[in-house]
Every structure is written in C-alpha cells, then in structure tokens.
Design brief:
nine-stranded mixed β-sheet, two-stranded antiparallel sheet, 11 strands, alpha+beta, globular
C-alpha cells in the first residue's frame, strides 16, 4: 500500500519517462510534489524501491527504472516491466536433422576482474577481457557485466571456482537473491542476500563458511546474478 506522496511521485516519474525517456531530476521531483527539501524525495524514492516499484541503477546518475505500477496507475504498461518467459534449450522436433543450426544472438560483456566466493576480496576493477553472452541470459533492462569467480563458498548454489557470473547492475535485492555486495566501500563478495530489520546477512552456499552479518549502512548491492558461464 502506497501513501499519497509515494503514489504521486511514482506517477510523476512514470509520466516523465513516457514523455522524455529519462527520469526527472530530484529538483524537479521536489517542485512537483511541493516539498521543501530533497531529503523528502530521497525518503520517497527509498520507500518505492523497498516496495519493488522502482529500482536505482548503480554507478549511474539520475538512473531510475520503473519495475511495476499499482493498479491505480494502470498496472502493466509498455514501460518494460512485463515479465519475460524464456524457453529452455529443448530440442525442436519439428526441425529436420540436416537443417541449418539456429545461431542465437549474443552480446559481448566486459569481464571486470575477479569476485570472491569466500572471504571478501577487492574486486570490480578495470576490464580484463570480454566474454560473449547469449542474449537470452540477459535481463530485459539494465546494464550488465561479468566477473570471474574465485573461491568455493557458493558451490552448493552451483557456482564453482573459475566460473564466470553474469551480473545485472542494481542497487536493490530481495531476500534469497545472489548478489555482488560491496562491504564498507572497499571489498566485494558474491553471496546470498538476506535482510532482517536494519541488518544484512551475506550467506554462503557452503557449510564450511559462516554467514556474515553487517549493519545495513555497511553493505551496498552492486548487482544481481542473472547467469553463469562455465568452461570445461
């Protein structure tokens, strides 16, 4: 349930993005809602993000993405938040055995270094190389990058040392998501995200590693796992 101010702000952002293709500035939001300071807008933005209506994209100024709309604003729209269903790689029995293979489209993503699946290490540095990723693995919106996994703390989630994980940039996560988490603005790690009150737990998927719990202001979500590439 949204408050009137939250609903007014969501409607203003939605209409501006439909009209101009970009979200309004914080000053424009403040004027539109007749608020005295931008701190009130920050609180409304945070509330909308926590309720899953918008997401803020990491490392980008003025980057707000609408995820869904309440029924009072029309529910689903053409903004790009209709869920996608991707079929798996099932054999197509209607195709003859000697037919030309279907080549899936792909995107080259930057591999931004190594990410710890174990004890946190410094990560997300400069681009080391590129990796070709099937477009079916990528989310319908947002920026993506790849990281090479170092360590074995996520092996029970099917993530091994040396795998390349595909990450969609986002600053928010739901409980149970596997995320790239930045700890105290210094070290990054790949873990399962769990929020409880004002604390955030970063859980391993290996009983040999303990769950680490931090105050919420010490952890920033940098992205969410959307795919994995393994080379044999």
């Amino acid at each position: 349930m949204l408050t009137k101010k939250q609903l007014d702000l969501l409607e203003f952002i939605h209409k501006r993005m439909q009209k101009d293709g970009v979200p309004p500035s914080f000053d424009e939001m403040k004027l539109a809602l007749d608020l005295r300071s931008k701190s009130g807008i920050h609180r409304l933005i945070t509330a909308l993000e926590e309720r899953g209506f918008i997401r803020r994209l990491a490392h980008r100024a003025r980057a707000i993405e609408i995820v869904k709309l309440p029924e009072s604003l029309g529910g689903e729209s053409s903004s790009g938040f209709t869920p996608r269903v991707i079929d798996g790689d099932k054999p197509d029995v209607s195709r003859p055995a000697n037919a030309e293979p279907v080549i899936a489209s792909a995107t080259d993503l930057p591999v931004m270094g190594r990410i710890a699946a174990g004890v946190p290490i410094a990560a997300i540095s400069e681009v080391s190389h590129q990796v070709s990723v099937p477009n079916s693995m990528l989310a319908s919106s947002g920026e993506h990058y790849a990281l090479e996994v170092k360590g074995d703390s996520m092996i029970e989630a099917g993530i091994n040392d040396g795998d390349v994980v595909v990450i969609r940039e986002t600053s928010s996560a739901d409980n149970g998501d596997i995320v790239v988490a930045l700890i105290e603005d210094q070290e990054a790690t790949l873990k399962r995200f769990k929020r409880s009150g004002r604390s955030i737990a970063l859980e391993a998927a290996n009983p040999a590693y303990e769950t680490r719990v931090y105050p919420e202001d010490m952890v920033k979500v940098q992205g969410k796992l959307v795919g994995l590439i393994r080379t044999y």
